[in-house]
Amino acid sequence: MPAQVLGENEQLKVEDLVVRFYTYEGIVKAVEKAKLTLMKGETLGVVGETGSGKSVTALTIMALTPTPGKVEGGHIYFKGTTGETVDVLSLKEAGLLKIRGKEISMIFQEPNAALDPLFKVGDQIAEAILAHRLPEMLEKANQLKKEKANNSSFLKSLPILRNRSRDKLLQQVVRKEILELLRLMEISDPERVIDAYPHELSGGMQQRIVIATALACSPTLLLADEPTTNLDVTVQAQILDLITRLKRRFGSSIIYITHDMGVIAEICDRVAVMYAGSVVEVAPVLEIFKTPLHPYTKALLESIPRPGSSFKSIPGTVPNLVTPPSGCRFHPRCYHAMEKCSREIPELKEISKGHCVACFLYGDA
Amino acid sequence: MDSGLRTYLARRLLLVIPTLIGVTLLIFAVTQLFDPVERASLYVRDPRQMRAVDEIIQKYGLDQPTYVQYLRWAEQVIQGNLGWSKSLNMQVIDALLTRFPATVELALFAAPITILLGIYLGKISAVKKDTFIDHVTRALAVVGWSLPSFWLGLVLLAFFYGGLGILSPGRLSPWAEALVRTGEFKVYTGLYTLDSILNLNAAVLLDALSHLILPVATLTIINVALIMRVMRSSMLEQLGKTYILSAKARGLDEKTVIDKHATKNALIPIVTLSGLLTAGLLSGMVITETIFQFKGVGYFAAHAATQLDIPAVLGFALMTGLIFVIANLIVDLLYAYIDPRIRLG
Amino acid sequence: MPKNRLWNSEHPRIKELVFVLRKLKASPLSIAGLSIVLLFTFLAILAPVLAPTQPDRDPYIMPREGYASTPKPPNTEHLFGTTEGQYDLYYGVIWGTRSAYRIGVLVVAVSTIIGIAVGSLAGYFKGLIDEVLMRLTDIILAFPGLILAMALVVAFGRGLDSITLAIILVGWPSYARLVRGEFLKVTSEDFVEAAKAIGCSDFRVIIKHVIPNTIFPLIIMASLDIGSIVLTAAALSFLGLGADPGYSDWGQIISLSRNWITGAPGNPFAYWHTFIIPGIFLFLFVIGWNLLGDALRDVLDPMIRRR
User: Fold this and answer.
1) How many domains does one find in chain A?
2) Interchain CB contacts (distance < 8 Å): B and C
3) Which domain covers residue A186, as residue numbers?
């Protein structure tokens, strides 16, 4: 793996990603040569309509592309705590298991659906801990045992019972860890919650559990797929706050997927705009709002309802991804479309510092 | 036990009563298809009583309005009087009770095997969707489901009994039957496999088991498709759910995700399905026991039907209704135990 | 050309039909099912041609050559041999196709009609009527079908007509539940409220919206049901509750072979034809319809969900 693929401060680079879904209705070209770069410690927002390919891209970063999807091209370079750069798409199951849940974690859109209804939430968090932090937990259990050894009875030192008592200590240690994690999630009664089943908890609480599971092993990269979309507005604010605070504490970078520009403005450092499977614009958050370049970005910002102004929507509909438009996929809906736009696909080019756009209106073709 | 579960259990148990009443109503409705003289045989415990038919009609109000008849009949049923079986020359209730253990034995082997095999095949089918294994198991399931049970039984008998001579119909070989008849072999439960363990008699145990092979195989082959199909679609449904993705995102390996999470959730509908399976097995018993001369209640009922032995057939129908209601009750209770979401409402 | 016009029609129902047929062509199992069903349909239709009848005999009674009980194996005179009692097996299985279809189609048709009637009443009026009707279906469904049918046949007396009636009485509840379900689903949808708001009568709503929605599920249910109906009827016939010996009914013919499955001394499969041949006909008929039903369900169900 070429060591210099990722720059000093770069953590993740998605290069020319192509993902296709083979369905009854045809081949859905969900992601078409998407490009993304993530810096260490930053919050990158990814915004786009339904069908823009943002969720698929996020899942593919963990090599969890849902069937019937297939990755058909591109690279996803990632540098984790080991310092080594890997192409996620080239890893086998063994390598992926080390990354998922540990280096890269994910928060899902529907917290209720993301939890197994038959298991207590505490057990589900424990799964993550035991999958990646087992040695650490065993170490703690042993320590605990040594402390207890002075007071233990003769029976407990028998070999058969030694393992059982060790398991019980392990359970205790993990439970303590989970309770600590729940407190970090600003859950006021962790003792009750840890033994609850998902359906016994409110939406906001469920999402906190999902976040807790994601952060249980201190990942360097957190993927958040519209984590607040399905929650009450008030709860939304709380969760957003929580995520921001946790990010500071854990030092992870975040890729935050949403269609809500308001959230973008609040917590993101940079923004990537996706349309119909490609990234059409990337810029620091202030610039995206001040000087949007891509016609789609402009239209997106204009379509945010404002008191006093009339309701403006983007003309046309989201393209059919089985038979997408030729050339630039936005051209049928674009006021500035030129003849070239229907023939060639524009590349993502850096126009000014940190501001890239994929449009023939800018830069040289 | 939390209060949610308690109220659910209480409500479910109470529901049994109207259902049972409904079952008796239906059977009673069938009795009304017969004329009073025929119906009289439903009330007698002794064939000699049939000579005084008019008395019987009087006593049980067979010429009275329907609801009166129903109450009188229900009263008799609850007291255990199901009439006299002319085809077997004994009281219907006795015939049913003495033959019930044989059917239980058959069911005790057939049901778990069918369910476990169905779950296993359904699971592989789903996990290896659209591969060769999937197609083969599904094809075999359709074949099994489409086979006439009586024909399958005949073919198996022709091959193993007629052709190879290694297995034979009936519950026991003649020498073992002799042991039972003379009392050397003590019958405790009526289930020969269990009894031979209690008698510490390995030879009879093997004999009983060998006689169970073909009937159990027949029942299993026919009914496994039912379980397999549901398990497959249930598994596929679970595998597409977000919590599976979430489990993988936590770093759990494929095997744990499938076995621990997907399978457990997928099994829930199977529990409910087991209730339906009971129905399938009960129906299957009638045919299978007849073909293999396995003298259980099904055999008795089929024989009675050909003799137009009304009390026997109706008594049997009543019994199966009862069994079905109980089976569904057990299934519903199990369901509540397994799925924590049910207890909330 | 008329055919092309139909094929490319813009009418939504025709388009669906074309879609269905195209999807059916795709899977080998569904082609197999369709072919088998077509084959048996032809056999049933062409029965008088393939196995000519005699003018003074009920066509469903098999011709017999003598009264000896030992069945004869296939030979030049009797293509499939004879059964116990010297009935011509070939004739029996060919006309047995007609018997099977007669029972199957009759039961499905009547069950559907009763089901639509009861289901519509329950779904439309709801309330008490719905409760009562649903309890009734519950009770009937609380019995294993074969056993209840058996009890009914004993009440009605032996015969194929009794069997047919019994299976109808046992089978209609499933259809009723299906129709009722569709009724409730459709009437709870907003467009029905809208239709009523602009003045559509209830009857119109039912005809234009509910009935079309129930057609596909009913077709699926019916085609999956025929197999089990014929199996149940065959089982009852086999037990001796159906037609008299000599009648062309697969179940009845198989029951004639019961004493001969162990063959003759020295030749255990001497009389294989007496049970193998009619059994294969029965089995293929059932599996053909089951495959077709499965295929139809795979094709039609996702379509319904897509709507």
Assistant:
1) 2
2) 147
3) 121-193
Integer Cα distance of A257 and A223 in angstroms = 8
CB B314, CB C151: distance < 8 Å: yes
Residues A8 and A145 in one domain: no
Residue C100: name the closest of C252, C219, C203 by CA. C252
Instruction: Give CA A3 to chain center in angstroms.
Output: 25
Q: What is the per-residue pLDDT across A28-73, written as a single tens digit (0 to 9) for each?
A: 888 888 888 898 889 999 998 887 888 899 999 998 988 788 888 8
- Which residue of chain B is at minimal alpha-carbon distance from A107? B246
In Å, the largest CA–CA distance within chain C is: 82
Region of A316 please: left (phi>0), alpha (psi -120 to 50) or beta: left
C-beta atoms of B249 and A100 within 8 A: yes
Close Cβ partners of C307 (under 8 Å, ≥ 6 residues apart): none
DSSP classification of residue A201: S
* Residues of chain A positioned with their CB less than 8 A from the CB of B243: 113-117
Number of separate helices (H) and strands (E) present in chain A = 11, 12
- By three-state DSSP, how is residue A12 classified? strand
Determine the topology of domain C12-305 in CATH. Answer: MetI-like fold (1.10.3720)
Phi and psi dihedrals of B334, rounded to 5? Answer: -60, -40
Cβ-based neighbour number of residue C52 at 10 Å: 10
**Residue A38, SS3?**
strand
Domain-embedded: residue A212: no
Strands A43-47 and A270-275, sheet pairing: parallel
DSSP A9: T
Tell whether A223 and A109 lie within a shared domain.
yes
Average pLDDT over residues B310-318: 89
Interior CA angle at A157 toward A154 and A163, to 5°?
A: 145
Residue type, position A179, single letter? L
Report pLDDT digits (tens) over B204-215.
889 899 999 999
Q: For the segment C198-223, what is each residue's pLDDT rounded down to a tens digit?
A: 766 666 666 676 777 778 788 888 98
**Nearest Cα residue to B173 out of B220, B216, B218, B205:** B205
Coil/strand/helix, residue B94: helix
Structure tokens at A258: 């949403």
Residue A325: closest CA among A293, A72, A316, A314: A316
Look at the block and give the residue holding tokens 């087991």: B274
Q: Tell me the chain B residues in contact with residue C282 when contact means C-beta distances shorter than 8 Å.
A: 148, 151
- C116 neighbors C217 (Cβ within 8 angstroms): no
CA C287, CA C296: separation in Å to the nearest integer? 14
What six digits make up the tokens of B143? 């074949």
**Does residue A256 share a domain with residue A162?**
no
**Position A71 in a domain:** yes
Give me the interface pTM, i.e. the ipTM: 0.86
**Domain locations along chain C:** 12-305
CATH of the domain at A85: 3.40.50.300
Residues A140 and A105 in one domain: no
Two structure tokens written together for A245? 């605070």
Residues B212, B171: Cα–Cα separation, whole Å: 7
In C188-257, where does DSSP find H-type helix? 190-197, 202-205, 211-238, 250-255
Degrees to nearest 5, angle at CA B332 with B331 and B335: 85
Task: Note whether residue A269 is domain-resident.
Answer: yes
Does C148 contact B at CB distance below 8 Å? yes
The CA distance from B187 to B185, in Å, is 6
For the beta carbon of residue C71, count every other beta carbon within 10 angstroms.
23
Tell me which chain B residues have a C-beta less than 8 angstroms from the C-beta of A66.
Answer: 245
Nearest CB among A64, A119, A200 relative to B249 is that of A64
The type of residue at A156 is: K
- Angle, in degrees to the nearest 10, between helices A203-215 and B242-249: 30
Give the HSE-up count for residue B323: Cα atoms under 13 Å, Cβ half-sphere.
24
What is the pTM assigned to this prediction?
A: 0.84
Burial of C104 per CB tally in 10 Å (0-12, 13-18, 19+): buried
